[in-house]
């Protein structure tokens, strides 16, 4: 009898197809996003995240249509990220049926964008998406993570923990935290990073990047103090189902929605 | 039911698409009208009063469109379902935005969870209260029909309802959240039925089938 930790399948979508790359290269096709979303809904996923990695304008229109189709059939929360750069992009996605939007690089270019978005649409629908990598330790020996853009290739020099605090102060209602070191590797979440950010902000934190097995999900919550865990390939390629993941977590004392 | 209509009040506060599409899904021919037109709202058979965002903007938008009086009128005469901010707006006042007077249709106040929220075991709780929590039925009610006690619903809110009366359901999140209120023809929920999977769709279907207040408002424990 308590708030459940959420399990969130993530659909990386390129030009209308679900894909998943290892460290964003070597992309494998994983199906039609509407069908994939319906399948996860039927399996009892707590939420669905849809990450648009399409580079072209035409592709983005496909994305809006796909979000509309998912929202007409799936009655659980839907977060859409990727390419959210202006207020009108947020309005388009919310009108298409998204409940929340993830803002990533647009916030780095213009930190006030998150504030304007939260003021306009409410914090409850603004997710700050953070892509971070471990870099050289601080002078006092503490670990340091920095924000990277362009699929992890471009450093920004911004301290990830400080950035999370600032974006939440600007009105973000949730943090989607992706370890770029872990993403696609199946080596597990960066637990120290997840814990550092979860302890630093009052809002929920979603751990992402690196899940390879169900123990990683358990660790993300118990050691990383994440409020939700996100995974893509382990679900897409049917290594585990959502109910298997939930049963595994429940057996280890984690409150889940069964 | 096929000839009946449900108005979803559109006052510029957030995403009504999901509410409307969930009603389309369960409505079985019910006409779903998303509108800010007072006459259309008043002529519908039943009314849904949704809302996300902040209460100050909510009240300002309602007043600027003349919808505050329309909601009062609806609350006095036909089945109405308030959702999330639409629930909070029905109460006397809210602590959000430095204190805002609300519609005062139901007794009670809307309070902040605070920045130092913990569960009974001392674990820190995040705010907003975001995700799937159990809702315990405080009364039997037609809108709970077919929904198991303690079913999980999807919540997302930083302020919670504390009402002295008419509590229909509760959730536990460091404090006791009055997750549902029921008073005659008005039902109000803090969670989002349109985002709560099968349980939420069932509640919406129950609302569309709810013709008039019944006399069955007695505590479950009796």
UniProtKB/TrEMBL annotation, chain A:
It is an enzyme of class 4 (lyase). Pathway: Amino-acid biosynthesis; L-histidine biosynthesis; L-histidine from 5-phospho-alpha-D-ribose 1-diphosphate: step 5/9. Its EC number is 4.3.2.10. It catalyses: 5-[(5-phospho-1-deoxy-D-ribulos-1-ylimino)methylamino]-1-(5-phospho-beta-D-ribosyl)imidazole-4-carboxamide + L-glutamine = D-erythro-1-(imidazol-4-yl)glycerol 3-phosphate + 5-amino-1-(5-phospho-beta-D-ribosyl)imidazole-4-carboxamide + L-glutamate + H(+). Its main location: cytoplasm. IGPS catalyzes the conversion of PRFAR and glutamine to IGP, AICAR and glutamate. The HisF subunit catalyzes the cyclization activity that produces IGP and AICAR from PRFAR using the ammonia provided by the HisH subunit. This is Imidazole glycerol phosphate synthase subunit HisF. It comes from Zhongshania marina. The gene is hisF.
From TrEMBL, chain B:
It catalyses: 5-[(5-phospho-1-deoxy-D-ribulos-1-ylimino)methylamino]-1-(5-phospho-beta-D-ribosyl)imidazole-4-carboxamide + L-glutamine = D-erythro-1-(imidazol-4-yl)glycerol 3-phosphate + 5-amino-1-(5-phospho-beta-D-ribosyl)imidazole-4-carboxamide + L-glutamate + H(+); L-glutamine + H2O = L-glutamate + NH4(+). It is found in: Cytoplasm. Its EC number is 4.3.2.10, 3.5.1.2. The keyword Cytoplasm applies. InterPro entries: Class_I_gatase-like (IPR029062), GATASE (IPR017926), Imidazole-glycPsynth_HisH (IPR010139). CDD domains: GATase1_IGP_Synthase (cd01748). One of its GO terms (molecular function) is imidazoleglycerol-phosphate synthase activity. This is Imidazole glycerol phosphate synthase subunit HisH.
